[in-house]
Amino acid sequence: QLQLVESGGDLVQPGGSLRLSCAASRFTLDYYVIGWFRQAPGKAREGVSYINKDGSTYYADSVKGRLTIRKENAKNTVYLQMNSLKPEDTGVYYCAASTIGSLKSNLYEYWGQGTQVTVSS
Asked: CA-to-CA distance for 97 and 83, rounded, in angstroms?
């Protein structure tokens, strides 16, 4: 069973930065697309970014220019660097694995447990 474990969520002020980590075990990143999703209270889960097997990346319009996704194969880990955070970025952030690059959550088979990000003054 593939496993994904997120970390790095925290309370941060507007304009601040966070780096989320998604550590993979029992599989290598070479064979999967890794996506980041978030879910705010009372709202549907939305895709924010994904990184393909070849390292190419994709971002939702709402986060372009502020979030950067990258992977470090040696550590089998994907990172999401989040800068210029806004209150609307608040939510539980999940990483997930798929064989298809997409921001559609139903295409992702394996999910982590999530990490809370709260942007508030």
From this structure: 24
Nearby residues of 38 by Cβ (< 8 Å), 6 or more positions away: 45, 46, 48, 89, 91, 92, 93, 94, 117
The span from the CA of 70 to the CA of 90, in Å, is 21
Other Cβ atoms closer than 10 A to 17: 11
Question: 39, 46, 22, 43: which is closest to 96 by C-alpha?
Answer: 22
Neighbours of 39 (CB within 10 A): 15
Pairing of strands 11-12, 115-119: parallel
- 13 touches 120 (CB < 8 A): yes
| Nearest residue to 24 (alpha-carbon basis) of 53, 58, 64 | 53
Structure tokens at 116: 């809370």
Burial class (CB in 10 A: 0-12, 13-18, 19+), 6: buried
Looking at residues 97-111, what average pLDDT do you find? 95
**Residue 2 — pLDDT band, cuts 50, 70, 90?**
confident
